[in-house]
Structure prediction request, 1101 residues.
Amino acid sequence: IDWFQPWPDDALMKVGQNFIADMDLGDDIIRSGIEKFLPFSFLTVNEEAKSFKRIERRHVYTTPKSYLELLKLYRELLEHKRSSADQAITRLGDGLQKLKETSDAVVRIEELLKISLEEAEEKKTVAEGIAETVSKEKAIVEVETEKGEVEAASVAQTQIEVSLQQKTVSEDLAKAEPAVEAAMAALNTLKPKDLSECKTMQKPPGGVDDVFASTMVLLANIWGNIQHKNGKVKERGWDAAKKQCLGNVNEYIAMLKLTKEKVDDGTMPALNMKEIRPYLLMEHFKPEVIITKNGSAAGLCSFVINIVIYYDIVITVEPKRESLRIANETLEAANTRLAIVTKQVAELQAKLAKLTAELEEADAQKKEALDTVEKGQTKLDLANRLTTALASENDRWAINIEVLQQDRTLLTGDVLLASAFISYVGPFTKPFRDKLMDEMFTPFLQAEFAAFEGVTPLSETSDCLNILTNNAEIAGWNSDGLPADQVSTENGAIVCNSARWPLIIDPQLQGIKWIRNKESDPDRHLEVVRLGQKDMLRNLTRALENGYTILIENLGESLDAMLNPIIGRMTVKRGRTMYVKLGDSEVEFHPNFRLFLHTKLSNPHYPPEIQAETTLINFTVTKLGLEDQLLVLVVRKQRRDLADLSEDLVNQQNGFLIKMKELEDSILYRLATAEGDITEDVGLIEGLEETKRISVDIAKKSAVAEKTQADIKITSEKYRSVANRSALLFFLMNDLVKMHSYYIYSLAAFTEVFYRGIDKVSPPVEDTPPPADGEGTQEVAEAEAEVEAEPVVELTDEQLAERCVHLIDSITSTTFDYIRRGLFVHHKLTVATLLTLQICLNDGMLVPDEVDFLVASKTVTESSNMGPLGEWMTESVWQKVKALDTGGMKRFQGLGDNMQSESEEWLAWFDNAEPENLNTKLPGDYQKSLTVFERLILLRAMRPDRMISALSNWVGDTMGKGFVQQKPFDMADTYSESSPQTPMFFVLFAGVDPTEWVEGLGKQLGITFENGNFRNISMGQGQERLAEAVIKRFAKDGGWVMLQNCHLMQSWVPTLERLLEVVQEGAHEDFRAYISAEAPPMASMKNMPESLLQSCIKVAN
Prediction:
């Protein structure tokens, strides 16, 4: 397919029909109208592009690729808008349904609440009865429990006393254990054999007989062998011992062991222990003594001693044992009584526990009933709060649903117009945009849809912004720096809705400022690059892979071929990932990647292939938009307090619009996502109440702010005439490039001149801003607090009007002097005339028809017989005279007949050397009836050779002599207007050398070659590096650099332009750049970068 050759009309129709064949477009009449509109809009734009080129000298191309992009955009945008409309309707419908459910719930809750109150009262009565019974039983239990506690305390005390007695007895008995163990151990040492041997002794060793005698005393009344009388042993001699004790040794030993048991059970005769004690007092009655005489006797001795010791201890412990026994009996009796009391208390407590459980159950039922009532009341309160909070939304949402439903039916046609708007009108200026949309596209669709009997799917007026954006989004754009005029808003809508990457024409740099702020979110990772930048490829790759934003600024009229796959979105899919070719490699194409293309060129000529792949958008400022911006600036200079307050209020209002949209979205989202019974969701309802409260608060503040803004606007509008004249001056400057490529200026340069014109008029004293109906707002007070305290003098309307006149005159003369300094001599009068004509037209001093006659010098092709005039008047002059006669200008009606009847008088005026002189009388009443400007029109028709003198006089009389008489060039004065950011550009002529001016001023200021802070470089091959090094050094340290004959370095001057742009940021205050070049041979040719010329102070005389 050859994209750049026109397709036949039927081909456009067929392609459009096939593309939209499966789309839901409604009735066949509507589908047919859309099918016809698609090729019509394409062909219409092509025709208008020709007119646009003829009038504005701008090139706009629409190719079949543009047509296909329109078809694609229409399908995608219509689906998106229908989906968005359905979602919005559903959202509002869900919100209304929730509110309806809440309203219904209020009635239901009230009925349930009445029943719940009755049940709660019944359960309350039951619970109170049980509570009374429990209270009585509890008193009884408490008395019995107290008795049990007393008994328990008594038993516990008895237990302590018994325990102490048990401990004492046990300790005393423990002391006897060693004695009995020693005694038994001594017996264990006895052997029957050894004792039998003792029997054989006739006379035992001394002391042995005493030992045996002591055992006989010990065993008296225990062993029957021992003879005694009343417990006393009479015969204790050895023979008696042998007979009574050793007769049966084994029984003797057993009887000795039995004595321990007698001691233990308390049957040991006390007389035995009394009779035995004298033996223990004998000196030789010791085991260690007796053992030297007889071992068996020693064992018996040890036994006797230890058993007596044991007896003595046991006798001492016995009373304690008795006391312990009695105490144990007492404890047992107390435990018995305690068990009885405990049992009684337990039975009472069990009964109480049962009653308590019944009470708890009754209380629980009572609490449940009361909770139900409370919950119902809370639910009712919440439901009422919700319906009250969102009462206004209820009506508004219902209306909005109807509006949305109606608007949805209009989407088919409205979205078609919006798609055509996005696809086609971006490059055009506002008049052409309005003509295309209002006079061509909309009427065509309306005519095509007229035959449809139902609701026509098209709005009565074409407002594409309603389809493409909303107030909240526009407010966000304005906050990001997008001017608030209509064209800028349209451009913003195209940028944000275009399927193709936007290429913005932005000579005033307002578009790039907006995009920088709009994409400044850290998540977007905005990268600003330029073609030829070293790291551009790396930045572009990173942006493509990660979904970042890339802005390519300051483009020329061509693009790097490397960018074609990206601009054309030539992606390939592998798996789930998209890839695009970048240079020699393929790079992942992230779906969130954004590309913005930007040029500072005021009138770039992009070829069809670029315009087909991108959406070209003309961000050139409009007159109305600039007038509003300049009004802000002049008010800021004259009334800083009002300007600051107005700016704060505008930002506040923009924030309010955005916040209100967010709040409504939040309310609808929370209603839609609420789960369960919404009337029980306290957090949700409180959140909605808070949201609504903020919304109402914002609405109140917004109303106050609007009133304050209106008051500020009244005062600001009094400066409107200054802004109007200033905008006129800028657009005059902006159009001069049509005369010569050197006559190009930036808005930033004009703004500096504009400020300088204001500053030439003595600064005014500021008066206070008017309050809103005498009521100050917090916002006003805060803004006023920021304004520095200055003397306040209120200006009357007359004083203010007079001041505006002074400001207008100063800005006009300052701007004209700035322009004139850079004009060629033969253009100066032309520009002065253009300025005067535009001012007179703008101020209503002239009408367009009069100006058209002067400028165009209209003529008629067929004229009547000249009569006597043929003797001295040429045919061409006569045709112009007849054009005046029949052209509709009242004072020239009948001019031809008058000339024929008064031929001699007209000849005299015609032959006069100075017919433009007002003292040179015109024939008849024309001397009195014609105005000065009408005499110019007549002179233009009959004596064009005298127009230079005539225009000089007219401009001088109308504007002032200073507009036709220029003062000699003053280098010092021009230098005062320059800055490190503003170079000076000299146009070279034969015999003119600006070096003397620059060097002469430099010497006065100490800027010389000898001081090392001035360099004059005549540019030529090989001088580039030197020039760049000097610029960098002087920008850092301060100094002047003069680059001469730069027209010889056309391939390098773009580098110079970029270098100056870089070094001017933070440049030394004494840095200045002076550039000289010869003008190109033809006025339309370019030999210097446009952006460099825009920023320079130009000197051409």
Q: What stands out?
A: The chain has 39 helices and 13 strands. The first strand starts at residue 501 and ends at 505. The two ends are 54 Å apart (CA to CA).
